[in-house]
Amino acid sequence: MQNWTTRKARFSSLALVICGIITSLVAPFLFPIILAVVG
Description:
The protein has one domain (1-39). The chain has one helix at 2-38. The radius of gyration is 16 Å and the shape is rod-shaped. The protein contains 1 helix and no strands. Helix content is 95%, strand content 0%. By secondary structure, it is mainly α. The chain crosses the membrane at residues 12-38.
C-alpha cells in the first residue's frame, strides 16, 4: 500500500511538471488570443 501511494505521488508530481512545461510552451501563443478576446 505504501509503495502504491509513493508511486501515485510521483506520478502526480510528474504530471504537474508536464503541465507546467506544456503551459510554458503554449502560453506565448495563447496570450495574444486571450488579450484579443478580453480586450
